[in-house]
Design goal:
The structure is a single chain. This protein is an alpha/beta fold. The protein has six domains: 24-129 and 144-184 and 218-260, no CATH class; 269-304 and 326-453, no CATH class; 475-560, no CATH class; 578-747, no CATH class; 760-863; 868-965, no CATH class. It is 38% helix and 16% strand. The strands form seven sheets. Strands 21-20-19-22-23 form a five-stranded mixed beta sheet, with helices on both faces. Strand 16 and strand 17 (724-730) form a beta hairpin.
């Protein structure tokens, strides 16, 4: 008894008499094989016509002419590049309609004979969604072009170039076309030259791809797939039966192409194919969700077999209804059966929504579409699902979805994608599966998943991965939390929609809450809620923010933070993420001078530096909101409002720069402070530029140096340690000089920020004159005082002041001291190292025409004779106790063992007894010895010059204080 289908697209009736059985043991009837092939071709004709009808009138010519374009290499047809390009499609003869289409496209076209030459192309096929329920206006065409295996390399390159030219022609018609050129036998053996489907996942799957090809493929021209003729129940014996068909000439061997069987799909493919679908699902979730679930279904229910075998089995059984055989209908039926058995109604509902949205057919607006067979089939399925018109309209009105609607659906999608990824990972671990995907591709996919879905502090969540066309709002209201009753101390912000009357805030739902206004604005900007047409309302409460300031920040985001409309490139994902663009908002909703204004205090000096403003040296940078767009297209917001905000921000930006020193991020400073915005922007822009240029000169680095910044009468020293930036905060100038004197592991010059220590320009001059691998003495004389700087071989800076009587009395002791240290250091070295001693130079800072300059001075110890006896100190280290010194005054010894705590007074008494005049002028140490175990954890063969100077300065201070006290 026959059964008539109620679905459209029926080209035959299914009856037991229509079933085709092939018994290879008893012999095969060639007429039966021909009837079987014709049955597949009948289904193929319906699908091809449906694929054609889904295209616009202009695009239909692509489907019509593809076989003819590759059959003859005619200059009038699209894609022609070279007269030597291989052409000819096996067993293809264009019909009158195809020739007429060619002449409409090119009036000069005339068909000409190709002679008796062997065709270069064995087959042309379309695979994927064309001609199926899942085809939408956004779908592309993936074409397999299989050339003859004997084609030479030059011919293959010409054919590939022509395929690219044809794709460009289709693109000019608004159609995305991909033509993949390969050999069928190479594909069967896994040796394909290129990835052979539109998803570039050839390294991730083979049998899954072949399964999709056999159940979705449309034969355009050339040889038929041999797979059609092997019964589904005999797939395990495919090779033997295919050989039998060819060997005994049951079929013309040149009329069929053999892509191979689809046996039980190896588990090794599931992880690679699944991760790739996760990759695709980030940007196009509907199709990928269906494929991911099918992969999981295949992996869990291996007895059911691939869908392509179910498709072939139905055709053998007599089913020729194109709707019942539709690949997406069969996919849904398989998933629905499996998920129902798994008792997963929520996942099944997501499958239904995905399929509905994948088709792109709005059933509540059918008058706007011309896809009759799709709409009829979809209506039948929706009726079986039990959807009411309200649910259908909700999906059809995606253009009206708002942030809340999208967030709910996105959470479901992310949960499903995460579930799939975890399942596939467990599968690989449980069965010790090696994924059929290159490690490079696996890392790439993992990084894209991380960039899209990983939650981390400050990262802005993109809630609309192609779920709704737009989330733009007509009216948005920003309320400071202090405007809410009972929350007057709150600093957060609330976002409302269509709130014309602020009093209605208590009754309206909150779109978003955030502790940072900038984070809220960036979230709105990146997710498309804010447009230039959006009306804004503001209730700033206790914050000083104005509506103009709010609009200004939004304009800054729209101008300076482009939202990526495509995923990050493969090249970007294969490299470590790095910041591309940094937008810094200063003092958002903060008045940096509020406390002074309340007290009635105003600017009291001419200082305009925003980090040390006015006589009070106020830091006008109170808060910073850092918005970062990185190379993985992640957007993050970090707020600095506690502690040393600016220095912390600088440190973090430098840390991000280390990964790619040659590619600095674009840094943009924005401030909407009514009084000092422009000066703050200029000051910070200069500071960030100077700091980056110092540490990464020549786009290399980080270079070893110490960068000094002055802020609010405090000093900060930025420095890299083992590739990581850090800073030290110092409360006074004395603390700064003490820090700069510390020993360094290698040459580490000091760079002074252009606005730091402005009252002491000499220090900046000294630091700029610093050179490695020598010892430099600089001095400046003002009236009866001298200032002395010594920069040693590693750039450590020692500084002190002393009474000035003459240059000889100033320089002789220090030069003798430094020469003694250098001489002793050289004597400890081997003869092979002779000649490598450090130079000691001397220079004076003087003013010429109002400018400070450095002039070289004679600094040799031989040219600067000393009066009186020399003073030498020899240090002793006893365990963890501080270093103690024996002091030699000429030949007279004063030891710690003998004098103990009275050592300094004893030396002072002796010095005064040797001075005939009784004067109390300063005493200077001309030599000093230190033990090599100053650091109890390590033996130091060569101590740094600054270490000797530190002890010299301290000892001289004690001695001279004693001399003054004794007068």
């Amino acid at each position: 008894m026959s059964v008539r289908t109620s679905l459209p697209g029926c080209v035959n009736r299914v009856t037991p008499a229509n079933a085709i059985k092939l018994d290879f043991a008893d012999g095969i009837d060639r007429k039966t094989l021909r009837r079987l092939c014709d049955r597949f071709l009948g289904i193929n004709r319906v699908r091809r016509q449906r694929a054609r009808e889904a295209l616009t009138y202009r695009q239909q010519v692509v489907i019509d002419l593809l076989p003819l374009i590759f059959h003859i290499n005619h200059p009038s047809l699209p894609g022609y590049l070279d007269h030597a390009c291989p052409h000819g499609v096996s067993h293809y003869q264009p019909d009158d309609e195809e020739l007429a289409a060619a002449q409409r496209l090119a009036r000069t076209f005339r068909m000409r004979s190709t002679g008796r030459r062997r065709p270069a192309i064995q087959g042309l096929y379309v695979m994927g969604s064309p001609g199926t329920l899942g085809h939408s206006v956004a779908s592309d065409l993936d074409v397999w072009l299989c050339h003859h295996p004997d084609l030479e390399e030059d011919g293959i390159r010409l054919l590939e170039a022509k395929a690219e030219a044809v794709s460009r022609w289709a693109e000019s018609l608004g159609l995305e076309l991909h033509v993949f050129v390969f050999v069928a036998s190479d594909f069967r053996e896994g040796r394909q030259r290129v990835e052979v489907n539109g998803e570039n996942c050839g390294s991730a799957q083979h049998y899954l791809l072949l399964d999709e090809f056999y159940r979705t493929g449309i034969h355009l021209a050339g040889c038929y797939p041999l797979w059609w003729l092997i019964p589904a129940g005999n797939e395990a014996d495919y090779d033997a039966l295919a050989h039998q068909l060819r060997e005994f000439r049951f079929i013309p061997a040149d009329q069929y192409l053999d892509f191979g069987p689809v046996p039980a799909i190896p588990q090794a493919e599931y992880l690679g194919a699944g991760v790739w679908q996760l990759y695709k699902g980030i940007d196009a979730p509907w199709k990928s969700l269906l494929k991911l679930l099918l992969i999981e279904c295949y992996a869990r229910d291996r007895n059911a077999g691939p869908l392509c075998l179910a498709f072939k089995e139905r055709v053998f059984a007599g089913e020729t209804n194109a709707d019942r055989l539709d690949p997406y209908v069969m996919l849904y039926e398989r998933l629905a059966h499996w998920l129902t058995r798994m008792e997963a109604p929520e996942r099944l509902e997501l499958v239904r929504q995905s399929l509905y949205l994948k088709t792109g057919v709005p059933l509540t607006r059918l008058e706007q579409v011309d896809r009759r067979w799709q709409s009829a089939l979809l209506q039948t399925m929706v009726a079986k699902w039990g959807w009411d018109r309200k649910e259908i309209r909700r999906l059809d009105d995606r253009h009206r979805w708002r942030a809340g609607d999208v967030q709910v659906l996105r959470r479901q999608i992310v949960a499903e994608l995460t579930h799939s990824y975890r399942f596939l990972s467990r599968l690989a671990r449980t069965h010790a599966v090696s994924a059929s995907i290159r490690p490079r591709d696996m890392g790439l996919l993992g990084r894209k998943l991380y960039a899209a879905f990983q939650r981390k502090a400050g990262k802005v969540e993109m809630i609309n991965p192609n779920l709704a066309p737009s989330l733009a709002e007509e009216n948005l209201s920003f309320h400071h939390q202090s405007t809410q009753g009972g929350r007057s101390d709150g600093d957060g912000w609330l976002l409302y929609r269509d709130l014309e009357n602020p009093a209605d805030a208590f009754w309206q739902p909150v779109i978003r809450r955030s502790g940072s206004l900038v984070e809220m604005l960036v979230w709105c900007h990146c997710n498309g809620l804010l447009t230039r047409a959006t009306r804004l309302n503001l209730r700033s409460g206790q914050s000083p923010l104005s509506l103009g300031g709010l609009r200004g920040m939004i304009e800054d985001l729209q101008a300076d933070l482009p939202v990526p409309d495509v995923a990050a490139s493969r090249e970007a994902l294969l490299a470590d993420s790095r910041p591309l663009r940094i937008l810094l908002f200063v003092n958002v909703a903060v008045d940096p001078q509020a406390s002074l204004t309340e007290k009635g205090l105003h600017k009291l000096s001419g200082r305009h530096d925003s980090l040390g403003f006015s006589g009070g040296r106020e830091n006008l940078v109170m808060t910073l909101d850092q918005v970062t767009l990185n190379s993985w297209h992640e957007v993050s917001v970090h707020r600095y409002e506690v502690g040393d905000t600016l220095i912390q921000c600088l440190k973090n930006i430098l840390a991000a720069r280390v990964a790619a020193p040659a590619e600095p991020p674009l840094i943009i400073i924005r401030c909407h402070d009514a009084g000092h915005a422009a000066s703050i922007e200029r000051r910070l822009q200069t500071l960030f530029q100077d700091v980056q240029q110092s540490f990464f000169t020549g786009n290399r680095g980080p270079h070893p140096l110490r960068y000094v910044i002055e802020m609010e009468r405090r000093y900060f020293v930025l420095q890299f340690h083992d590739g990581e930036p850090g800073f030290v905060a110092l409360e006074s100038r004395a603390a700064l000089f003490s820090h700069l004197q510390k020993p360094q592991p290698r040459y580490m010059p000091v760079v002074v920020d252009r606005h730091a220590l402005e009252e002491d320009p000499a220090l900046d001059l000294v630091c700029k004159a610093s050179q490695p691998d020598n010892i430099q003495v600089f001095f400046l004389v003002r009236e009866r005082r001298a200032r002395v700087w010594v920069v040693d071989e590693h750039g450590s800076l020692s500084y002190w002041e002393q009474v000035f009587t003459s240059r000889r009395h100033l320089l002789a002791p220090i030069m003798r001291f430094l020469m003694n240290i250098a001489e002793r250091r050289q004597l400890r070295r081997s003869l092979a190292d002779a000649g490598g001693e450090l130079d000691v130079t001397c220079a004076e800072l003087v003013q010429r025409s109002g400018q400070w300059v450095i002039e070289r001075r004679q600094g040799s110890a031989d040219d600067l004779p000393m009066d009186g006896f020399e003073l030498q100190a020899v240090g002793q280290q006893e365990g963890d106790r501080p270093v103690r010194f024996d002091i030699f005054c000429g030949e007279e010894e004063f030891s710690v063992l003998e004098y103990g705590d009275q050592l300094i007074p004893a030396v002072v008494h002796y010095v005064r007894s040797r001075r005939r005049s009784g004067e109390s002028y300063p005493v200077y140490i001309t030599d000093l010895n230190l033990p090599h175990d100053l650091d109890p954890q390590a033996y130091q063969q060569d101590l740094q010059t600054s270490q000797y100077l530190a002890y010299r300065i301290a000892l001289e201070r004690e001695l001279n204080q004693g001399l003054q006290g004794a007068t």
